[in-house]
Amino acid sequence: MTSTAHIDSARQTVHVSLEDRAYDILVERGVLDRAGDEIARHVVANGSPLGRTAAILVNPKIDRLLGDRLRASLVSAGFHALTVAVTPGETYKNLATVSRIYDQLYADAVDRRTIVIALGGGVIGDVAGFVAASYQRGLDFVQIPTTIIAQVDSSVGGKVGVNFRSAKNLVGAFHQPRLVLIDPNTLKSLPMRQRRSGLAEIIKHGIIADADMYAGVASEIDGILSLKSAYLDYAVANSCRIKARVVESDERDHGPRATLNFGHTIGHALEAITRYRVYTHGEAIAIGMVSASLIAEEMGVCDNALTESIANVLRRAGFEVKPKPDLDIDEIIALTSLDKKSVSGSAKFVLVPRIGHATYGNSVPAEIVRAALKRQSAI
Ligand SMILES: NC(=O)c1ccc[n+]([C@@H]2O[C@H](COP(=O)([O-])OP(=O)(O)OC[C@H]3O[C@@H](n4cnc5c(N)ncnc54)[C@H](O)[C@@H]3O)[C@@H](O)[C@H]2O)c1
């Protein structure tokens, strides 16, 4: 699918088939204003929200931008809307924040029928999901993601949790949402750097699973970043579809779910080495995808044309495609073996033999990673 002719800019529904944990992802401009009705229809067994509390977990900035619209739609659908303010930022994605949220839910005496709603980016989604997974042993959970990263990645698949000491997402759970509502119009206030960061994950989904979307995104980069192209809506829904199919095959991340980590082994190392202050997640992953392709070349898995193609698409999307020159290659390599996904200290890489296909669990000797990173520093 390389043309925009296939795009349906009206509602797109992606169903996630997970037995009794199945749910729908609705992608539609304007769906935020009908959130209350959609939640009543999809989450409340008899469709009657009478007496049910919807607890909106949101940071103050997103609350100012979108909170009133969500509250109005919940109240008009019959919910009691409760707002829980959460301090923004990755540094507050921790157990202290979770504990403060428990305090408010306790003070408001919410019951087990309460629906927890995450309104915001991936941080709020992960924190709110963990609260929903744990408070009173599990509450219904709805995601209303408002960054591209959250819309195409973190809101789908049920991984929720917080950071612990210096480890990202070390404490968490699998807790699938009951519904995901994606309104691409909510991205209008999202700064360009954050939009671009999310685009890296869309490109990643194309590389690992969908050559047509990879080509389509490559030809629609400007329209996606400006949010004007209906291809954005298609790419968001299709990314959810790709992630959903992977999650359906491996909900608990014992096998193929690892393919979603393409570019993340080096990407995570770059984020860690720069203490999360230099690169956005997408920027680090963009560089990591080029590293992974060069590694695949060195392993004889793909040819240079593939690396060139990936690097060119990423450059056109505005990404750097090699690590900053002051970063030490050996330090990057040392960090890859500490990656959460490494097994017994040996880094595992996702490799792409051709666009649309990915293999996971590939052990790569450090010399090969070093050779690839050296080549990358010269591209
Ligand atoms: N659970 C998963 O499967 C999964 C997958 C990928 C990422 N994540 C997690 O997601 C987090 C990153 O998510 P993120 O990139 O969305 O970061 P984020 O949630 O910190 O959001 C980035 C910034 O954008 C702001 N923002 C959000 N929506 C906005 C809007 N519509 N307009 C203006 N500003 C807006 C936020 O307030 C924040 O300052 C990380 O903690 C990562 O670990 C989780």
Structural features, described:
The chain is of the alpha/beta class. The chain contains 14 helices and eleven strands. The strands form three sheets. The protein has a seven-stranded mixed beta sheet, with helices on both faces. Helix 1 packs across helix 2 and helix 11 packs antiparallel against helix 12. The radius of gyration is 20 Å and the shape is globular. The N terminus is likely disordered. The protein binds nicotinamide-adenine-dinucleotide (NAD). Nicotinamide-adenine-dinucleotide (NAD) binds next to helix 2, helix 4, helix 5 and strand 8.
SSE run: EEHEHEHEHEHEEEHHHHHHHHEEH
Proportion of beta-strand residues: 15-25%
Mean of residue pLDDT values = 94
Mind telling me the C-alpha Rg?
20 Å
General form: globular
- Distinct ligand kinds: nicotinamide-adenine-dinucleotide
The largest beta-sheet arranges its strands as: 1-2-9-6-5-3-4
Q: Give the distance, in angstroms, between the N- and C-terminal Cα atoms.
A: 30 Å
Outline the biggest β-sheet. 7 strands, mixed
Summing up helix and strand content along with how strands pair, one would put the structural category as alpha/beta
Helix content: 40-55%
Return residue spans where pLDDT drops below 50 for at least 5 consecutive residues: 1-8
Total beta strands: 11
